[in-house]
Amino acid sequence: MTIQELQQEIINLNSRFTCTTSDIGDWKVAKCTEYQLLGKELPYDIEELGAARQAVRDEINLIQERIAELELQEQEADVE
């Protein structure tokens, strides 16, 4: 994959946090916070939600590392 393709993948993954139809969206975290503050039972399994969100963050981190590697390779190729 190219750097641009990897950057687009990061954008796509980040959109999973902000999209109102996403299964791991920020809206679910906000809804859980609201319910907790009201003393109600949480509408979603917060541990499962947190784990799913962390998995996406981990994937983003791996892609960022790959981008850094590709950028370094490009710099080294430019020097030669």
What features would you describe in this structure?
With 80 residues, the chain is an all-alpha fold. 78% of the residues lie in helices and 0% in strands. It is built from three helices and no strands. It has helices at 3-18, 26-37, 46-79. Helix 1 packs antiparallel against helix 3. The longest helix has 34 residues, at 46-79. The radius of gyration is 18 Å and the shape is elongated. The two termini are 23 Å apart. The mean pLDDT is 96.
Distinctive features:
single chain, 80 residues, mainly alpha, 3 helices, elongated
Computed Rg: 18 Å
Would you list the SSEs in sequence order as H and E?
Answer: HHH
Residues in β-strands, percent: under 5%
Q: CA-to-CA gap between the ends?
A: 23 Å
> What is the total tally of β strands?
0
> Share of helix among residues?
over 70%
Mean pLDDT: 96
From the spread of the alpha carbons, the general shape counts as: elongated
State the low-pLDDT regions, or none. none
Main sheet attributes: strand count, strand direction, barrel closure: none
Secondary structure category: mainly alpha
What is the chains' assembly state? single chain
Q: What is the gist of this entry?
A:
With 80 residues, the protein is mainly alpha-helical. The chain has helices at residues 3-18, 26-37, 46-79. The longest helix has 34 residues, at 46-79.
